[in-house]
Amino acid sequence: MADGADRDLIVRLAFGGMAAQTLRAAARLRVVELIGCRQCRASDVAAEAGAEPQPMHRLLRALAGLGLLRDHAHETFSVTPAGAFLDPVHPASLTSFVRMFTDPAMIRAWEHLDSSVRTGRTAFDTVFGTDFFSHVARHPELSADFNEAMSQASRDTAATLPHAYDFGRFGAVTDVGGGDGTLLAAVLAAHPGLTGTVFDTAEGLAEAPGTLGRHGLAGRFTTIYGDFFRSVPAGSDLYLMKSVLHDWPDDQVVTILSHCRAVLPPGGVVLIVEPVLPEAIGTETDADVADGGGTYLTDLNMLVNVGGRERTRTEFEELCRRAGLAVASVAPLTDAAPFSLIEAVAG
User: Fold this and answer.
1) Per residue in 63-116, pLDDT tens?
2) What own/partner pairs with CB < 8 Å and gap ≥ 24 does 94-99 have?
3) Are 91 and 159 in contact (CB under 8 A)?
4) 90 has catalytic annotation
5) How far apart are the C-alpha atoms of 65 and 187, rounded to whole Å?
6) Which residue, 278, 183, 288, is CA-closest to 240?
7) Residue among 57, 112, 135, 246 flagged as catalytic
């Protein structure tokens, strides 16, 4: 007979998609926002959300089972510390992250994971008739959720990175694919001698001036829109990229890195912030990814949705070599797992 714990693991994993959609419903119905800091009857939440009382009670009960609410007597619920991250006013809210990663645009291609594994092709392009980023750009609400989700996903890194690397030896930094400027704002705020540029598509930059302005960085930043497959703006001695290269297949990664190399001055650095997979899970020289396997799921997400991948140190070294760069160091980014800092210099 199979071990009970092993069987339970399979059952929990099989129910994972249902749990994700329960989160999505909670975010769309503003459940946590409506409950706030009080204990609230399910019928009152339903009335404020414009929903039916009995189904709302069932939803709240399920959220309690997931650890996001507390189920009190008389069909009354309150929010747990974990559930508070579904409140859009929480300073570290994950509401847009949940909305984006449970959206049909993100999950429909997963139904064809087996096909992507068989063929190596990106399922999203077949399902939607275009690539992921073009689809997002054509849907303003989805684009806004995507930009905010990327910002929310960058907050731990933004809190850690400025103190984990010697930015003080540089004069100017360009954040390539920097989105709304969350990461650059943190770096500039911690290093007053730096100036910075956020480089991204027009859609990606939509919120960047506001983000950097709110940090009191007027006069110390510029925003430039463009296509990093064509060029990268010159003028910096540090080129920073977080969660950019994993979106793309190898040849396109080499193109991005080559454009950074083309404008890199003597002594300049390309700093890549990405997960670095162990060469083999469980080897004595490589620790397993310490995020419950999430990085390997992200790797599959790259396969089905955008065509990129997560990579090992050896794979990063080879891509940098092809672009005229050499990896000088790789270091885990403490307190922002599973990310590492990959420092590349002219090869």
Assistant:
1) 999 999 999 989 999 999 999 999 999 988 999 999 999 999 999 999 999 999
2) 94/152, 95/27, 95/152, 96/145, 96/148, 96/149, 96/151, 96/152, 97/148, 97/149, 97/152, 97/153, 98/23, 98/24, 98/27, 99/24, 99/27, 99/28, 99/145, 99/149
3) no
4) no
5) 39
6) 183
7) 246
